[in-house]
Amino acid sequence: MSEKSTNKYAIVDLEATSASSTACIIQVGIVIMQNGRVIDEFASDVNPHQKLDNHIVHLTGITDQQLSQAPDFSEIARTIFELIEDCIFVAHNVKFDANLLAEALFMEGFELRTPRVDTVELAQVFYPTLEQYNLSYLSRVLNLDLAQAHTAIEDARATGKLLLHLMDKIASLPRQTIDMLLTFSDNLLFESELVIRDAIKGKTNSLSKEYIMLEESGIVLRRPLTYMSERKLSQDFETNIALLGLESRAKQEEFAKTVRREFDNIDISMIQAQTGIGKTYGYLIPLLAQADVDKVVVAVPTKLLQNQIMSQEAKALAEVFNINFHSLKGPQNYIKLDAFYQTLFRQDSNRLINRYKMQLLVWLTETETGDLDEIKQKQRYMAYFDEIKHDGKLKADSLFVEYDFWKQSCQKSQEARVVVTNHAYLLTRMEDDHDFVRGKTLVIDEGQKMVLALEQFSRYQVNLTTLLQHIHRILDSGNQTLLQQRLLENLQFEVRHLIQEHQQFPQKQYNRQQLNRLLQTISELEGESDVMEMVSSLNTQHYSQFWLETDYYQEHRVTYLNASRQELLKLSDYLPSAQKVIIVSATIDIGPDVDVADLLGLSQVRKVSLPMDALRNQSIWIDQTMPMIGVSSEEEYGEAIAKRLQKLSAMGYPIFVLFTSRKSMIAVSDLLDHREVHHLTQEKNGTAFNIKKRFDRGETNLLLGMGSFWEGADFAQQDKVIEIITRLPFDNPKDPFYQKIESLFSKQGKSTFDSYSLPMMVLRFKQAIGRAQRRPEQRSAILLMDNRPLVKSYGKLFIKEVSQEVTLRHAPFKQIKEDIQEFLEKEC
C-alpha cells in the first residue's frame, strides 16, 4: 500500500446475539490501521445479560459462562468511542456492525459520525470473478490467515488484511481505469470511495506494457499473451502422466493405447470406455504426443464440462508442456465492447447495474478471453448482461475492431493446438464453416450425447415473453407507419393467443398450417429488424413441427415457441474434412438392434469396446418405501424427498441430488428452505458451474441439480459421497425427438420402448452414477428414490444391467440410511 496514505481506519467486527437490528453485542474486535500498519487493537467480550441460543454458541464458540464474567457495554463504551471517533469505520458488511455499534454508543451518550467503508462492496468491485464474498471464503482465496472465524478480533484482523489487499489491488490498476471507476463511485452504498482515493495517492498516469489503452473510449484492456514454444511429450504415456504429477492407472493407460492405435485407422473410431478412468488425459496425451497431429478439436456435451476441462486438464498440460489450448463458445458468451461502452455513458438509476459497470472495468484489465462466464455473480441481474453480450456482429468502424473478444476467439481457434468446445457449438461452427475441422483430429467425448445435440441443432426457439415485451416497447414509441403498427398488433395478438391456448392445453403441438396466420404476419413484417431477427427463422421451410414450453420462476414465467425439423440430422454430413474422428462413448450399443452409430447416421465405423470392471467402492439402494410415481401426487413425492434429504444431510457426508425436472427441483429446494436445511440449488443459487465449485469447497454438503449434472459434472474431490437419483431418467414420450425415433422404429418394425427408451434410460442412469466414481479409492453410495424397478415389468432388465457393474439392493429408507452409514465408514 502507498506510504503516502494518511487516513486512519478502524476495522471493526462485532459478534452479537443475532443478525437482527435489535441484537445485543457480545464481543468487540477493533484494529486501528494507518499507512498499511496496525497501530492499535482492542478486544473485549460484552455481557448481554441474556442467554445465548445454540446457533450463536455453535457459530462463535462463545458461552454464557464466558460472558457472565465480561464487562457491560457501558463500561467500555468510552474507550471504544475515543479509539475510533477520528477514523474511517471499516467492516465486512459495514451496515450491520456500524449501525449496531452506533446504536449501542448512542445509548451511552456518544454519537458516532465516522465515514463508513464496506469491504464486501469493495471486494465485489475489485475481485469481479469470485463466486462469493463472505470473509471465510475471501480469507481462503486471498490467504488472509483467518485462524478463528467468528471471533471478533480475528475477523477484524482478517478484514484489515483484506483492506490492505484491496488497496494494493487498487494501486496496481491503471490510473485510467481508476478514474473511470470514480465516475461511478456515487453508486457505492457507503463512503468506500475514500479507500479508492487513498490507495492511488501519488499514482501516475503512465500505463505499463501489460495493458492496452483505447484512447477514444477510456477503457483499458489486458494485452493478449504470447504463447511459449511447446515442449515435446514423451511417447510413453506413463512418463507424461508422471510429469503432470499424477498417478498412472491401468485402465487409463489401456484406453490411451487404444486411442493411439485407432489414430492410424482411416475410418471413424468409436471407443466404448467405462466412466471414471480419466478419459480426458487418456485421449489428449497420446494425440498430442504424435508429431503428425497438427491440431485437435475436442467436443464435450456441455459448457460446464468444457469449463471443467479448461480449468483442470488443459491448465495442467499448458503449465507443464506449454500446450496452447483455447475454449471456443458461441458469440453470446463474450462481452461486446461496443455495447458495454454505450452503457458507460448512460445514466442508470439502478445501483447494481452501475456496480456491474465498475466490476467489468476492473475485469477488462484482467481477462484474457472476454468470456462473461468469468463473472460469477452476473445472475443477480442477467438483463444487463443480456444487453452487453456479443451478437456475432462487428462494424468496420467500431472503436474496438482490433480488440473484439469474439473476433479474437475465432482467431485463437485457428492458432491453438487444442480447441475445446461443446457439442452444440461444434455443430453450429461446422455448419457455418465447412473447413472448421479440415485436417484436424476431432474427438467427440460422450458420443452418445451427440445424438441429442443433433436434435437440439435441428430446432429453433423463440422467447415469446421477450418478444411481447419488445413489441410493446415499439408500439409505445409510436415510431412506425400505420401498416407496421397493424402488423405488430396482429403479431402481438397471435402470440398472446398462442400463450393462452398453451395454458389451457400444455401438451398441444402444431404443424405449419395451424400456425399459418402467425407465420404470414412474420413474413409481411418489414423495417422492424429486431423483431424480424427474433422470429424470421420460423418462416423457413426447415421447420414443420411446433410446440410451446413454459419455465416457471419464483416471480415470473417465460414461454417459448419451439420449432423442429421433421427428419433426424446425420453427423456424417458435417465430418468429411476431418483428418481423423474419434468418438468416445460410455456405450456403443443402445439396445439389442440399435447402436450410437446408427442414431448418428454414421457408416464405416470401427467399434472398440474396452472391458468393464465391477465397481467395488460403489453400491446402489432402491428406496422401496417411497411413494409410487404415477399414483401419489407431485406434492407428496416432493415432500418424501425433502424429508429424506433432511435426514441424510444430518449425516454430514457430501450429497448431490439429481432431478429430471426443474419444477420438481425447485419445489424440493423450497421445502428444504422451510426446514432450514442448508443447500445449493442450480439456477436458484447460481449456474451449474458456480454451485459445483462451491459444493466442492465444502460450503454445504447438499447440492440439487439437473441437466448438465447428469451429463458431465464430475464429483472427484469428495472421498466419500452420496448420490441421490430422484427419478429414472426416461425420455418424455411427448417430446418431438422421441416421436421422431418412434416413427423411424415403427417403420422398421421395432419397439421404441424396448429398442430405445429403456436402453437409453439405463445408459443415462449408468452415466449418472459414474459422476460419483471418478477415482479408484473413492467411495460412493447411490440412492434411487424411484421404486418402479421393483414393480414394473422392465424392472428385471434394469436391475440385471445395472448389477453387472455395481451391487444393487432394495430396502426401507430407515434401513438404507443405516446401510449407507456403514458402507461409507468402511476403508476403501
Gist of the model:
The chain has 828 residues and is α/β, with parallel strands linked by helices. Among the domains are: 8-119 and 129-172, 2-Layer Sandwich (Nucleotidyltransferase, domain 5), CATH 3.30.420; 460-565; 618-825, 3-Layer(aba) Sandwich (Rossmann fold).
Question: Can you describe what's shown?
Answer:
With 828 residues, the chain is α/β, with parallel strands linked by helices. Among the domains are: 8-119 and 129-172, Ribonuclease H-like superfamily/Ribonuclease H (Nucleotidyltransferase, domain 5, 2-Layer Sandwich); 460-565; 618-825, P-loop containing nucleotide triphosphate hydrolases (Rossmann fold), CATH 3.40.50. 42% of the residues lie in helices and 17% in strands. The strands form six sheets. A seven-stranded parallel sheet has the order 10-11-9-12-17-8-20, sandwiched between helices. Strands 23-24-22-25-26-21-27 form a seven-stranded parallel sheet, sandwiched between helices. The protein has a five-stranded mixed sheet with strand order 3-2-1-4-5, sandwiched between helices. Strand 4, helix 4 and strand 5 (116-118) form a beta-alpha-beta unit. Helix 6 (135-142) packs across helix 7 (152-172), helix 11 (250-263) crosses helix 12 and helix 26 (634-649) packs across helix 27. The two termini are 49 Å apart. The model is unreliable at 1-5 (pLDDT under 50).
